[in-house]
Amino acid sequence: MESVSHLKVSMAEDISIVNQAILTAEVGQLDTEVLGPAFMYQLNQCINLLYGNNYTKCLSLVKQLLDFNWEKLNTGHWKDVHLSWRYAYSYLSYFKSVCQMKGFGDDQHQGIQLAIKTCDMGLLMGAPVLDNILSRYASKLSKLLNEGKKDMSEKHTSAKRRKLDDCDVNIDPHKAIKRVNCPPIVTFYEDYMKTETPVIIEGCMGYWSAMSTCRWSLEYIKEIAGHRTVPIELGSKYTEDNWSQTLMTVCDFIDKYIQHPDLKQTVGYLAQHQLFDQIPELKNDIIIPEYCCLDNEDDETDINAWFGPKGTISPLHHDPKHNLLCQVVGSKFVRLFHREQTPFLYPLKGIMSNTSEIDAETLDFDKFPLLKKVQWLECVLKEGDMLYIPPKHWHYVRSLETSFSVSFWW
């Protein structure tokens, strides 16, 4: 692990590489008409103060600009926020984190934690700048906080998993999703993608580090990502009236909602979050399945994390893309309905028309009589399983135990 002195040298080298002229030029490419000349002037003042080693004054000005920038990010709809405001937020977050690092004083631990949180807020609310420097800094700082901890690689490799009691869920054999062992790409395309047929693929995740050499456990996730700030959904499902979101560190989330949950509190869920863009160390433990290259015109795959305790629910909904839902930790119950079943599934009106108002696990035929016509498939998705969900196929998911899934959309 890097020492404090080595980290300071490393950060100083990064700052020298991103020299004042380059940084001023990059910031100068922002849309002045959108940000305004006064904001741009103060943004360049921050650069001058930063490279003039006036960290206290720089930090004070940065905080003022971040507060103003925050208001711009949270006015109106997120999709309507001009990209320049997101870039500006990232630059300011970078300035702030550097000032916090330089202002360590005697309390290095607190300084590092503050700088990590600043980087994460920039990653969550901003847009990548300077070769994604916020992600690189946060990674270095997170490693530093773990300095001195015992090497846990052996424990991660040999971590034992609790065997799921198959009696927790009874799968109707006539409705069970077909299982195949690592089919060739051509077979997968012809038999499942072209025919829009869900299938569980076995035997394709064993070589992931997350399943072997760096096997994911709560301890490993805390070690790699524990100090990072992430968005957490509060509520068993997003269709509930009391559903909300909050920000907290991964360590706090695991402690409060997974390891020591209060039975009276609501469920917490890290859901549909691009965690692997934020924390590349975890992305190194997984591999994008080769199947994702099929019919992928943009050659891009969206990767999302789904991490939470037993009882988290994704209500019945559909997505527009191909989906491989990969189970890394724990297990989930999944129920699927073909897109042709849509007329019988009572979609909600308006912007949530991709979500059904029914409880897909406990079908209420009296309240929703059209459900008598529906047909479905189901499964228990276990560690090492990949579930292919075709576009527009309705799916309902419930975790049967502490669970970590990774979805690949293309």
Overall description:
The chain has 410 residues and is of the alpha+beta class. It is 37% helix and 18% strand. The chain has helices at 4-17, 20-28, 32-35, 37-51, 55-73, 83-102, 108-125, 133-145, 153-158, 185-193, 218-225, 250-259, 275-278, 280-283; strands spanning 179-181, 199-202, 229-234, 244-249, 268-273, 302-308, 313-317, 323-329, 332-337, 377-381, 386-389, 394-399, 403-409. The strands form two sheets. A nine-stranded mixed beta sheet has the order 1-2-11-8-13-6-5-3-4. The protein has a four-stranded antiparallel beta sheet with strand order 7-12-9-10, with no helix packed on it. Strand 1, helix 10 and strand 2 form a beta-alpha-beta unit. It is elongated. The two termini are 37 Å apart. The relative contact order is 0.11. The model is unreliable at 150-154 and 163-167 (pLDDT under 50).
Q: Report the structural category.
A: alpha+beta
Helix content: 25-40%
The proportion of residues in beta strands is: 15-25%
Helix and strand element order: HHHHHHHHHEHEHEEHEHHEEEEEEEE
Roughly how many Å is the radius of gyration? 24 Å
Please name the defining characteristics of this protein.
410 residues; alpha+beta; 9-stranded mixed sheet; 4-stranded antiparallel sheet; 14 helices; 13 strands; 37% helix; 18% strand; elongated
